[in-house]
Amino acid sequence: MVTVKEIKKAENSKGEEFFGLIVQSRAMTVKSQETGRTYLTAKTAFVATTFDEETAKSLIGTQFEGGIRKVQTTPYQYVIEETGEVIELSHRWEYYDPALEMEEQVVEETTVI
């Protein structure tokens, strides 16, 4: 389950603006590699939409089935907003809906037969 936390204006490859949703996973426990202490965190991901700003805003607080998973990418530079530190990452966090994935598998199997 994910919850819509905020909206974000973005731009596509053609320079057209659109609104996306920032979704957040449930809280999860993680153990710090540096201190060994346990803490709570949640993952967030950006989901593109075709909604206007008003419709996107109306979805804040809405929950959707699914989760957020780590997806490997080619390495890229990322700036930590709070500190200005530049780090290199090779992953991103992506929203997924298990029902849609199941639907895709059924279609693929039907196509093969």
Strand content: over 45%
Main sheet: strands, sense, barrel: 4 strands, antiparallel
Order of helices and strands: EEEEEHEEEH
What is the strand arrangement across the widest sheet?
Answer: 5-2-1-6
Low confidence ranges: none
The averaged pLDDT comes out at: 91
Distance between the termini: 33 Å
Helix content: 10-25%
User: For the CA atoms, what is the radius of gyration?
Assistant: 17 Å
Number of domains: 1
- By DSSP, the count of extended strands is 8
- Can you tell me the overall shape? globular
Structural class: alpha+beta
Number of helices: 2
Question: How does this structure look, described?
Answer:
It is built from two helices and eight strands. The strands form three sheets. The chain has a four-stranded antiparallel sheet with strand order 5-2-1-6. The protein is globular and about 45 Å long. It has one domain. The protein has 113 residues and is of the alpha+beta class. 6% of the residues are buried. It has helices spanning 53-58, 98-112, and strands spanning 2-11, 17-24, 28-31, 38-41, 44-48, 63-64, 67-79, 86-96. The mean pLDDT is 91. A hairpin with a 6-residue loop joins strand 3 (28-31) and strand 4.
Sum up the structure in keywords.
113 residues, globular, 50% strand, two-stranded antiparallel sheet
